[in-house]
Amino acid sequence: MGPADIKKVLTECSDRKQPVVTATSEILQTHSWHNIPGAVIIDLSRMNAVRIDLQRRLALVGPGAKFSSLVSEAQKAGLAPEMEAAACLDFTFADWAHESLRMLSTSNSGVDGILRNIKVTAPGMDYQTGFDSFPANGGGYDLTKLFLSSKMSLGVPSEFAIPLRPVPEIAMKRICKFDNAESAISAGAQVSRSGYARSVKLKSNGFDEMLAAGKTQKQSKADCLLVIRVEGTKPLIDAGMNFIDGVMAKSSGKTVEDKPDIPMIVDPLSINPAVWPLGICSVDTKALPYLLKGILDISKRSNRAFEYTVSDVTPTSSVLIPLIQGPYSKELLGAIGTYLADSRVALRGNPNWNPILGDARAVSRVDIVKGIKKLVDPNMILNPHVMEVF
Amino acid sequence: MIESEVARRSLIRAVRPDRYSESLLERLVTSHDLAPMPKVAALAFKMMPDAVIRPKEAEEVAEVIQIANSWDIPVTPRGGGSWGFGGAVPNNGGVLLDMTSMDKIISLDAERGIVRVQPGVVWLRLDEWLRRRGYFVPYYPSSAPGATIGGWISTGGVGVGSYKYGAARDNVRSLQVVLPSGRIIDTAHISDSKHPSQFDLTSFFIGSEGSLGIVTSIDLQVYPDPEAFFPASYSFANMDMAYNALAKISEARLKPYHVAFVDDNTFRFLRAMGREAPEVGGMINLVFEGQKAKVDEELKFFDALMTSIGGKRESDAVSHHEWMERSYELRTKKLGTGAVIGEALVPIGETAAVARETLQLVKKMKMSLAVNGYLIDRGTVAFLPYYLTDERRWIKSISSLSFVKKFLDISNAHGGRGVGLGLFMANNVRAMRDVNTVKLLRKIKYDIDPHGRVNGGKTVELKLRFGIRVGPRLFRAGMNALAILKRMYPRDKYDRPVPGGFPGGEHP
């Protein structure tokens, strides 16, 4: 399937006012398209080409390509993407797009640093969200972040333009253990701000075991691991490690391991099929310890262990991905899902962000998006469930 | 003058009498930006506003817009006016919102490193304010002493520090915007600001040049004041070597904080003004910042790299001087009576070719030109040629404006594009984006602003004062005619001769 085929399907379905949903790899429980009766499903998994444009130092990636394919193709050219697979899971770019790239660690750069342009096919028209070769400044409106945060309701992506950088001379990973998440997050934010770290992630102590071996603890524990990636030349890495030592000395963290970093990317289909990400939650970093404490409380009450990873720990915002290993009940999944959703609303402390509650500012914001949706999808057929929330 | 007395009174009531003005002086001052526009341009655009209003709060902006909607009055927001494409200049009169009056630094969240400011705060003032509190803002326009935060963000925001810290959109966490309907929105919540979810509109408004709404508050990511800060300048025998050095820097595994270049003509202009300037073929200015150990290592790494490709490290005094001059690249305009800048983003591998063809163009057009610029990321150079102009000779001056269009054609042919659109370059959007995307952008503009009142007729379309849309063909034909006219004139002369002349030996 290619953009021309997508165009045909969308045009036909738009004429018939038949709903269309985009299928990604079905491993994220956050997808809700299963419940749309009579929908045509566009499976993007075969659009998996990865082309490297050496002159522009750019990768042009199909939505069905996996992150590991990008890394391996770029490596052949001595290059690497700016992003990392934060949750270690080897999703396709359609998955990443559906989840706003939130499961990709971006280190100190924003979306712009890791993704330039998306070619989009929509029922109303084809368009591009930005520029392949340049940051999208001052050349008309930038639609990239808006598209990424629309859960593919504004079109079907057919190609992502991803800037590449030289492979670093050396990359090291330092793992530090903490007995509580609050100290770990505070130390992580400090390291993130220093400019030494390429990425800073946090994960529960049993996360790797659950992911790789399917082993699980009976109950979640408070201890956690801060994983700091430093790269560059040898003296620069030494300087970075000295700085991290200083931060650890002032906190309760203890370095448990230093090793050359080969980022782990796990095919989600190869891990224990009973392990599920329970949600992807953008949170204010300040509120993160509170959220993690709540997850521990649910674990205690239900006598079930949850593991988690926090990608991209920054002083501002972070992304929390809790995981669970089955068997599990709908009630349990519901409990943690509701807890995360309620906490997000409560912690924001700002009703502007609840358009469902009818706040005027949120309604105006959603009106803009609805207007754009109508322009690109006049019969509102594409992933209609996303807009229905509002 | 606002024609309706009722509308006039309503506007005065919306702010306060002392923040509403119809004085000729104020309207004249706000009828142009950095680009000197000859009076004859008034045939096409009504650049003089009917009234200048200085709001203090978002609610006042909202009220002004609602009144403007009721009386069909165009509204143009304006920051420091330090850009050169007419983005902050009315194209059909109306109300000009002088946003420099909204100049409060509202709060600093030290833990998250986020500062909330009103759009009229000037970059230099914000940096000084932050430094007193142990923070700094590492990205800003080279016009930081006069440019406002809202203005730069509206243009997309690439400049000093973008090489390491990204563009404005990488560092703006949220915006408060007054929409053309008069309603106020926040574009993103802090918890989603770095990792977008739920329809993130922040980037959508950044770079929209005030045509989708008026920004009234900005949350910016700021950083702890660095432990060490070190500029290092390297001179080269010619600009080809300097452009090659830019490519090598972009391929390096480490990243300096800022990478800028200055050509030999800039130094010749400076010498003509009687200022001290090195006699070199070109200069690359690198700047490093961060933890001291990190800065030392980066300096060592780039020192070896630059020396290996023919660069000569200049003294610390010269390096420091070059860094301090980063905001004064147009100092040399005193040689004429003004200067006009062309701004383009050029793929790094094409920089030398674009420079060569630009110099050939300048020779044909009998002008004098200098170039400076900087890297904005590993693949892109912001290439900024500027020529001196004498606005007292208005035919020659207006015919010189065709250089900017011709220069952008050169950069487009090499895979580059203009930096912005504004009023004068609005038709260039067709060269930047594909046809379908341009159609979509126009539809979006009119969906959000059905009557095109807020900074209308710009950015995604070019409209004359009578609401007539001008297509790129007519614009191109006009510019070609001006370029031919310019070639018919004798070579440009300036108040002071430039020692040694310029490539092409143009100076008498």
Give the arrangement of secondary structure elements.
The complex is a heterodimer of chains A (390) and B (508).
Chain A: H1 3-16, E1 20-23, E2 40-43, E3 50-53, E4 58-61, H2 67-76, E5 79-81, E6 84-85, H3 93-98, E7 104-105, H4 111-114, E8 117-121, E9 126-128, H5 144-148, E10 156-166, E11 170-178, H6 181-194, E12 197-204, H7 207-213, E13 224-232, H8 234-250, E14 254-260, E15 275-277, E16 281-284, H9 288-302, E17 306-311, E18 317-325, H10 330-348, H11 360-376, H12 384-388
Parallel strand pairs in A: 1-2
Antiparallel strand pairs in A: 3-4, 4-10, 5-10, 6-7, 8-9, 8-10, 11-13, 11-14, 12-13, 12-17, 15-18, 16-18, 17-18
Helix pairs in contact in A: 6-8, 9-10
Chain B: H1 5-14, E1 20-21, H2 24-29, E2 51-53, H3 58-71, E3 75-78, E4 95-98, E5 105-109, E6 114-117, H4 123-131, E7 135-136, H5 149-154, H6 162-165, H7 168-171, E8 172-178, E9 184-186, H8 202-205, E10 214-221, E11 223-224, E12 228-236, H9 239-251, E13 258-263, H10 264-272, E14 282-290, H11 292-308, E15 312-313, H12 316-324, E16 338-341, E17 344-347, H13 351-364, E18 369-377, E19 380-389, H14 394-400, H15 402-413, E20 417-418, H16 429-432, H17 435-448, H18 472-488
Parallel strand pairs in B: 2-4, 3-4
Antiparallel strand pairs in B: 1-2, 5-6, 6-10, 7-11, 8-9, 8-10, 12-14, 12-15, 13-14, 13-18, 16-19, 17-19, 17-20, 18-19
Helix pairs in contact in B: 1-3, 13-15, 14-18, 15-18
